[in-house]
Design goal:
heterodimer; A: about 525 residues; alpha+beta; DNA ligase i, domain 1; D-amino Acid Aminotransferase, Chain A, domain 1; OB fold (Dihydrolipoamide Acetyltransferase, E2P); 7-stranded mixed beta sheet; 7-stranded antiparallel beta sheet; about 35% helix; globular; B: about 350 residues; alpha/beta; Metallo-beta-lactamase, Chain A; Rossmann fold; 2 domains; 6-stranded mixed beta sheet; 10 helices; about 25% helix; exonuclease (chain B)
């Protein structure tokens, strides 16, 4: 555990990528193998089910620290991290002479206790807390609360493993993907070449596009490129192997059970295929807004009505495996032909081909791109016809060419402190538009400003806070921001009647006063034009 | 006069803390006739007042920062009377010269803490608890997540970090506020028995402090003429405003550390993008605040700059009458974690340096 705690500490404080890589590589060379498997799991978003809720952990901590709940929450909103808040609030350790356990032993105990009664859980957690220093408590709390976002990306971990194992990073990425249980998988099996063939559900690492910042002419001759719509859904892989169907999201979440409509494809598709595409709601091949998909995400039980109102389809645009062979090395043009064949044979409304947009010169494509919103697309994708399917985000062969965002000028009215590296800094804002002489809140936004701008707004909030509602401060409505967003939909959950997609602060309009912001009517007009 | 009975000894005005019976202000943020100053940090000691009353050690610092003014300085526990009100200064332990201000009139005693820390750092004077009816306390680190390690342990960590850098022939750059924190670092690093290199802003303050007679290790100012060779593996102290500027180039390869109470929380340290964060503070931590407040025996506690709402609510729940007070303090040195270039003094020095 100490070794892992040291690793987390180094990863959290190192300012250079090389230092982090070095720390990971050292860890993977020297740590006990059972611990290593868990670290791979934790850093790729796989974690044991929580054995105690945040609320319960908070109670246990308050009892030990003798502080009231409200004070705990004040601390939490300032520190911006639950695990750390608890680590800092607990009284000093009373028993530091205990024998140190390994990371996997703690995790095994956490899993064993999942079904135990609360008293047993509390006894275990309390005992651990009182044996640990602040750094160890922080790491232990992270194991309890999940979510290891501590300044290391999955890509970095893959690179470190590649370095220690002398295996290409793309192969590592593939082997550690998909459905495996760190409690039962050994390090050797996980990273062996066989892991890819024994797990029928295993997806391939996704190939990700960069945003096209220049004009498309810079890409060269139009004949070398294939254009498609950039759909606004969930990127996914649809797999059929061994007479079983699996659907993975890009976040490596197995979503097969969430979308029962895909089961209809089981008999229609051949074995040994992996399709890459977009999970989107659609009726008769016509996409529906993302907001409809949101009504399906996170639901365990899906009603008949939902299946009717928000039917989910798969818009395929690539084929990664064919006849049980990895064909990612083939050029896109060839993969595309094989894919179109499969889909044509399946003949099912749930499985659509993401069409290729014909174009002969870049200028006509510029025209087509302006139609994106009407197609419920975010813009265009440009893919080099001769390119293989690569691993991760790589420059050169795939580009996303998004349409310009919609924008609206709004005034900041509420602020709340952020999390992680934004701890104790007001970075989470709520914005309002005008409605007569009233202000109506319509969106939150947390991103888009530079650190320097955030500092400035933070200082403004601290000086101009009017009222306090728990962690939220109401602020003098003075600062105007241009809010950019990708889409707009009607919503009865918000006072304004609209919900925005991907809202962020595009620009701080220091040149504008609060009475020059947009109105609720402006927002409703946008809804009428784009909110279909 | 009935009016005098209802007017509190110290009231909170838009110029600062005001004692109407004595007709003077404490740490005013707008110009007044008579100002009693707790300490030399820029948010507590402003320019433009006609008369200043402060501790002997504070006077040279005010002269360096604010130029020539009418200054009167006194020692700790020395009583001065202004319009029949007794005033005395008592060590606050925050920085050199920093004082709590005891104000008494008829049977009533108020104490204004200014900024303070309860641990004796060996150079700022040991915080002295003063019995009073009403205590006005700061609350910069007024949440229980802020609990400092003993100074000795923190110094050991800093020394080890410097030692590791030396082994790698890397320069150690420590970012610290020029008044207060920088002097504590000098004290912490004296054991290396070598000259410590200072940024001009800190050098200026160090020169001003010579008048106090407090002993510091040998220091050298970094100037454009300072040779690169001399800085290799050396110890450098610079104000936060110098962080990330081209001024640092000459010290390459270097490792940086920020020394501030805010480094207690990982997120803050990550945001600063520093190699190391040491939670070394010149303010009282949560336990220190509570201990100080309790030891005054005050019936009423006003809480200023920091986490005033949390501390005030907590005190009320503990049976101590308390209210929060809005002041203009907390925009100066350590209180404002996000102001990299806190004082104007630092800014001007940096610009004139380059």
């Amino acid at each position: 555990m100490q070794q892992f705690s040291l690793l987390v500490h180094t990863l959290g404080t190192a300012t250079k990528t090389n230092e982090k890589l070095e720390a990971l590589a050292t860890y993977f060379t020297t740590a006990p193998t059972k611990d290593k498997v868990w670290v791979i799991a934790l850093f790729s978003g796989r974690r044991p089910k929580r054995m105690a809720s945040s609320g319960v952990l908070q109670q246990w901590c308050c009892a030990l620290a003798s502080i009231p709940d409200w004070l705990f929450l004040e601390c939490y909103h300032t520190a911006g991290d639950l695990a750390e808040t608890i680590a800092l609030l607990l009284p000093p350790p009373t028993n530091t002479t205990h024998t140190h356990k390994h990371l996997h032993e703690y995790l095994e105990q956490i899993i064993d206790l999942q079904k135990a009664d609360e008293a047993a859980k509390q006894a275990f957690v309390t005992q651990c807390w009182l044996q640990m220093n602040t750094d160890e408590r922080f790491v232990f709390n992270k194991l309890l609360t999940g979510g290891f976002r501590i300044g290391v990306s999955q890509k970095m971990m893959v690179n470190a493993l590649a370095k220690t194992m002398q295996i290409p990073a793309s192969a590592i990425a593939h082997r550690i993907s998909g459905n495996w249980n760190p409690a039962t998988t050994t390090y050797e099996n996980l990273l062996s070449a066989e892991s890819v063939t024994t797990d029928f559900s295993k997806p391939y690492p996704f190939y990700l596009a960069y945003a096209l910042e220049q004009t498309p002419e810079t890409l060269g001759s139009p004949e070398e490129w294939q254009a498609e719509w950039k759909w606004d859904g969930i990127r996914g892989q649809l797999i059929k192997r061994n007479n079983e169907l699996f659907v993975w999201s890009r976040g490596e979440e197995l979503m097969t059970d969430k979308f029962p409509e895909y089961q209809a494809l089981l008999d229609k598709l051949p074995n040994g295929i992996v399709l890459d595409g977009e999970i989107i709601p659609a009726i008769n091949g016509k996409p529906l807004p993302f907001a409809i998909l949101q009504t399906r995400i996170g639901r365990k039980n899906i009603s008949k009505k939902q299946l009717q109102d928000a039917p989910i389809a798969f818009f395929a645009y690539d084929l990664l495996e064919h006849e049980a062979q990895d064909i990612r090395h083939l050029p896109l043009a060839q993969r595309r032909l094989l894919m179109e064949n499969i889909i044509a044979n399946a003949q099912h409304p749930t499985l659509q081909i993401s069409p290729v947009i014909p174009f002969t010169n870049w200028q006509s494509l510029v025209q087509t791109r302006t139609q994106s919103r009407a197609m419920l697309a975010e813009g265009l994708m440009l893919k080099r016809k001769s390119a293989p399917y690569q691993v991760g985000r790589k420059v050169g062969d795939w580009w996303k060419w998004k349409i310009d965002a919609l924008t609206i000028d709004a005034v900041l009215i509420y602020a709340q402190k952020g999390h992680g590296r934004r701890s104790n800094l007001y970075t989470d804002y709520t914005f309002a538009v005008k409605d007569g002489d009233k202000l109506v809140s319509f969106t939150k936004a947390y991103s888009g400003l530079t650190d320097k701008e955030f500092n400035e707004v933070d200082a403004f909030v601290k000086r101009n806070a009017i009222e306090k509602f728990g962690p939220v401060r109401t602020v003098k409505p003075e600062l105007v921001f241009e809010i950019a967003f990708e889409g707009i939909a009607a919503s009865n959950r918000h006072k304004s009647g609209v919900a925005l997609r991907f809202p962020r602060m595009h620009r701080w309009r220091k040149d504008k006063k609060a009475d020059e912001i947009n109105t609720l009517q402006d927002l409703k007009n946008l809804l009428l034009t784009y909110g279909k | 006069m009935p009016k005098a009975n209802t007017t509190p000894l110290i009231s909170f005005t838009n110029r600062g803390l005001y004692c109407s019976a004595g007709d003077f202000y404490i740490d005013p943020w707008r110009p007044v006739d008579k100002a009693v100053i707790t300490h030399a940090h820029s948010d507590h000691a402003k320019n433009g007042n006609k008369q200043y009353l402060c501790h002997h050690f504070t006077k040279p610092l005010l002269e360096a920062r604010l130029g020539n003014n009418h200054y009167q300085s006194i020692g700790w526990n020395e009583v001065v009377r202004i319009n029949g009100v007794s005033i005395s200064l008592h060590p606050a332990g925050h920085m050199i010269g920093s004082s709590q201000i005891r104000v008494s009139h008829q049977d009533e005693v108020w104490v204004v803490s200014g900024d303070y820390k309860t641990e004796n750092d060996g150079i700022s004077g040991a915080f002295e608890p003063i019995r009073c009816n009403t205590f006005i306390t700061e609350s910069t680190f007024g949440l229980p997540i802020y609990n400092w390690l003993p100074q000795h342990d923190m110094y050991t960590q800093i020394q080890q970090w410097v030692q590791n850098n030396k082994a790698k022939k890397t320069t150690s750059i420590l970012f610290a506020y020029s008044l207060g924190k920088a002097q504590r670092l000098l004290q912490a690093l004296a054991m290396f028995n070598e000259p410590i290199y200072l940024h001009g802003a800190i050098w200026n303050m160090q020169m001003a402090l010579a008048a106090t007679g407090i002993a510091f290790p040998q220091v050298e100012r970094i100037t454009p003429e300072t040779l690169r060779e001399k800085l290799k593996g050396a110890i450098v102290i610079a104000p936060p405003g110098a962080e990330g500027t081209s001024w640092m180039k000459k010290m390459e390869p270097y490792s940086t550390a920020v020394c501030s109470g805010w480094m207690q929380v990982r997120g803050n340290a990550r945001r600063r993008n520093t190699d190391m964060g040491f939670a070394l503070s010149d303010h009282a931590d949560w336990k220190g605040l509570l201990a100080a407040i309790t030891s005054t025996g005050a019936e009423k506690v006003f809480v200023t700059h920091g986490f005033q709402s949390a501390l005030s609510r907590y005190l009320n729940e503990q049976g101590i009458w308390s209210a929060e007070v809005k002041t203009a303090y907390g925009n100066g040195e350590e209180e404002n974690e996000n102001a990299n270039s806190a004082t104007d003094a630092i800014n001007t020095t940096i610009t004139t340096q380059q």
